[in-house]
Q: What sequence folds into this?
């Protein structure tokens, strides 16, 4: 494993050899280096890049800077989505029940408050705000509303929400966490109990399982999987035949891959990748948010940062900010990865483009 600083100013490099536990893809002992705190475009450089496979250099320049775009002002930033105006990123702070907008021109602003639950004060909620966002081609945004326990379509122009689903089998969802849409209109989302106080032990939890679901165009809700302990981030492969789901469980930190038929049913499932060997004291993060490149690379937030995995689940490298990264999304011209990193927002330029961006 080779670790590269986020920027390589000669005066800031301190290299040494370090042993590390081999990863499943035959990661080996290699050089380490300390990241510097230089500024690029007025933004502080943070973190570092870790190389697991030489092909990581085809994904990102090893001298690339990871830029910290905001101060440490969020409780838990989440759900980034680059919206259709092509100029701004929307993301959420789930505990604070806010949605933010960030752009290069205007910086940071509160875009929607409350972002999720709007009812009277209640002691049943752990996180009242909206969580994952997914930008649609028409300019609308799908929203996993953790606090309101529903999935909605959000119009950034009017700030109006249209509810898509609230129940399955006559019972309320737990707290929808992340969402993605297929080109035929099918919407897939995860429903862990993170939004509920006491989570699985919450007295208001109605679903027996923490499920992965599909909403069809006619509004019908279908269960895709009920076997994951804490389903979280969700994404589709470029051909839309594979659904990826992160399981945010320290006892089983894996990503699942489901083969989908034309109707959106899962015909089989497999463990796509496992991060168990990356867990440890002082390592921040669990399998959480997902983003997919046009070539089918998976950018999966997990232990230590954003893991870049090929279509076979092989680790290529890791993008690190120095803190836990909840989620990631492509933005700008598609070759910038935006990361909601606990208390701040970060970004890094890439050589590959995000799914849905013109190549």
A:
């Amino acid at each position: 494993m080779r670790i590269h600083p986020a920027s390589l100013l000669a005066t800031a490099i301190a290299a040494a050899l370090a042993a590390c536990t081999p990863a499943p893809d035959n990661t080996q002992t290699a050089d380490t280096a300390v990241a510097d705190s230089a500024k690029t475009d007025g933004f502080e450089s943070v973190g570092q890049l870790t190389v697991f496979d030489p092909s990581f250099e085809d994904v990102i320049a090893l001298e690339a800077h990871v830029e910290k775009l905001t101060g440490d002002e969020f409780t838990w930033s989440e759900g980034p989505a680059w919206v259709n105006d092509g100029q701004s990123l929307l993301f959420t702070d789930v505990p604070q029940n806010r949605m933010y907008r960030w752009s290069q021109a205007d910086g940071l602003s509160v875009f929607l408050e409350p972002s999720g639950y709007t009812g009277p004060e209640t002691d049943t909620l752990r996180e009242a705000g909206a969580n994952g966002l997914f930008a649609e081609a028409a300019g609308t945004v799908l929203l996993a509303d953790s606090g309101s326990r529903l999935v909605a379509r959000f119009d950034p122009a009017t700030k109006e929400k249209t509810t898509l689903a609230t129940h399955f089998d006559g019972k309320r969802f737990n707290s929808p966490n992340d969402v993605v849409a297929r080109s035929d209109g099918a919407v897939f989302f995860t429903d862990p109990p993170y939004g509920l106080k006491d989570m699985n032990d919450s007295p208001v939890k109605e679903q027996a399982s923490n499920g992965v679901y599909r909403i069809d165009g006619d509004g019908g809700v279908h269960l895709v999987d009920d076997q994951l302990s804490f389903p979280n981030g969700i994404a589709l492969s470029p051909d839309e035949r594979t659904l990826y789901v992160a399981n945010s469980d320290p006892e089983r930190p894996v990503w699942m891959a489901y083969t989908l038929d034309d109707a959106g049913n899962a015909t089989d499932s497999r463990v796509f990748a496992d991060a168990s060997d990356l867990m440890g004291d002082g390592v921040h993060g669990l399998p959480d948010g997902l983003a997919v490149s046009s070539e089918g690379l998976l950018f999966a937030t997990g232990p230590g940062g954003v893991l870049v995995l090929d279509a076979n689940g092989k680790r290529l490298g890791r993008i690190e900010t120095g803190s836990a990264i909840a989620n990631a999304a492509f933005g700008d011209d598609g070759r910038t990865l935006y990361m909601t990193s606990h208390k701040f927002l970060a970004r890094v330029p890439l050589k590959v483009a995000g799914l849905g961006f013109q190549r």
The radius of gyration is 19 Å. The chain has one domain: 2-349.
